Design the sequence.
């Protein structure tokens, strides 16, 4: 009787022991024969911290761009400083060598001067625009007076003229054209060179309204005065 009861309890006891053993077994302990490096890792877990994010790349690019712009600005300032020093040295070495340029308007009332522009050795030194005609009232304008190194130099001029007519000549107001000219001159050491740029009209009945305006140059030189 007792033996039959034991055989009925034995399967139930074995089941309890198996359940307790399974509950105490670690769920994530690797096999003792497998090293840590051999444990498989999913691709997403292995590359998440190794590859930089898109935001960090954008920040690095902006930083590099800012550094480049800073270097460019420093180079530009350095060039401007060197140019200024160069001009100061040239002017300091050529105190007695100077140039004076005048603009003189001798055009008749049939023309209105709308703009003038002057260049010395390729550098703009004067630019004035007034379509209303106030430039005609200034018959003489001082364009430039400064020290120049001895040697050859070049002045370039550009005028914009507009016709000024009344009555039967009112059609002249539709004419607007540009007159350009250039002149080379020499500056000697310890001398002052004066260049007058004169805008005037050519004579002749056969010349058209556009062909009459022209530019001529009057150059004079003053030597260095001897000290008393």
Sequence:
């Amino acid at each position: 009787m007792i033996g039959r009861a034991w055989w009925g309890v034995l399967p139930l006891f074995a089941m309890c022991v198996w359940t307790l053993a399974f509950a105490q077994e670690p769920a994530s302990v690797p096999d003792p024969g497998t090293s840590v490096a051999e444990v498989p890792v999913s691709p997403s877990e292995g590359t998440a911290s190794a590859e930089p994010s898109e935001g960090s790349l954008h920040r690095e690019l902006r930083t590099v761009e800012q550094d480049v712009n800073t270097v460019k600005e420093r180079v530009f300032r350095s060039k401007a400083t060197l140019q200024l020093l160069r001009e100061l040295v040239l002017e300091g070495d050529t105190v007695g060598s100077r140039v004076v340029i005048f603009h003189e308007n001798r055009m008749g009332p049939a023309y209105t001067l709308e703009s003038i522009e002057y260049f010395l050795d390729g550098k703009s030194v004067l630019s004035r625009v007034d379509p209303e005609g106030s430039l005609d009232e200034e018959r003489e304008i001082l364009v430039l007076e400064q020290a120049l190194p001895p040697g050859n130099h070049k002045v370039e001029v550009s005028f914009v003229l507009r016709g000024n007519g009344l009555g039967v000549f009112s059609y002249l107001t539709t004419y607007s054209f540009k007159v350009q000219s250039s002149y080379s001159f020499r500056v000697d050491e310890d001398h002052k060179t004066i260049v007058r740029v004169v805008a005037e009209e050519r004579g002749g009945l056969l010349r058209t309204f556009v062909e009459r305006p022209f530019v001529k140059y009057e150059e004079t030189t003053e030597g260095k005065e001897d000290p008393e």
Notes: The longest strand covers residues 151-163.
